[in-house]
Amino acid sequence: MQLRLVANSPHNFFNPWGLENGPEIDESIVTASGKMLLLDRLLPALLKRGHKVLIFSQFKTQLDILHDYCTFRKLKICRIDGSVSQAERQEHIDAFNSDSDFKVFLLSTRAGGQGINLTAADTVILFDSDWNPQQDLQAQDRVHRLGQTKPVVIFRLATKGTVEDSLLLSVEAKRRLEKLVIKGGQFRTMGQKINKDEDLDEEKLKALLLKDGHVYEQSGSAEILSDKDVEILCDRSDSAYERAAIGDGNADSFKVVETAATGILAS
């Protein structure tokens, strides 16, 4: 748990802005965290283009940091976590869906991942990931609801070289295993026996759980994440979706970026 928190932001261990009579929020809320640096480049670009954004996190302390960040950047937000009553939840949902001034909605993945319709949003940012991939999928479904008329984009943030590497590999393996069970004809309704005629040896299972049986890592030359890079990330054109559908440009992989207090570098 501690390793996951530090991968988000060191302020999860001590948030000076959460103290009574604490200091004013400053740029260190961004510069102390690689994810916050990346968010600070991506979120303004999305809002400038008229998008409404849902930001999910597993941790209430991280939501507090994101709340402080939005206050620092003078963004009007809505928020739902486990401490919010049912009546307040509905008030926040109605405000976000009907008021154009509210462009960002902060939600805890579990408290905000079920029974909520937020089709006013067309962008989801998973600030961190759940060990159970179904939790993140349910969170994403908040924008994929009846009445959604806009193309939707999902961003998942992860800190390279941390416990999140193992977490994402585990999540991907679980998703591939689900597809394997269904594709292999072993998906049955309750009470039916699973077909055991076809055995899966260890090597075949590994190959199915990992892409081509290997772990891939995408990297390139070091350069600042340019306006062109941001433009590509924010592209909602038909051609962008067509490229993603056919896997053009290794679309199914993560883009690796190296962050620093002086800027954001793609590596």
Automatic annotation (TrEMBL):
<dbReference type="Pfam" id="PF00271">
    <property type="entry name" value="Helicase_C"/>
</dbReference>
<protein>
    <recommendedName>
        <fullName>Helicase C-terminal domain-containing protein</fullName>
    </recommendedName>
</protein>
<dbReference type="GO" id="GO:0016787">
    <property type="term" value="F:hydrolase activity"/>
</dbReference>
<keyword id="KW-0378">Hydrolase</keyword>
<dbReference type="InterPro" id="IPR027417">
    <property type="entry name" value="P-loop_NTPase"/>
</dbReference>
<dbReference type="InterPro" id="IPR049730">
    <property type="entry name" value="SNF2/RAD54-like_C"/>
</dbReference>
<dbReference type="InterPro" id="IPR001650">
    <property type="entry name" value="Helicase_C-like"/>
</dbReference>
<feature type="domain" description="Helicase C-terminal">
    <location>
        <begin position="38"/>
        <end position="206"/>
    </location>
</feature>
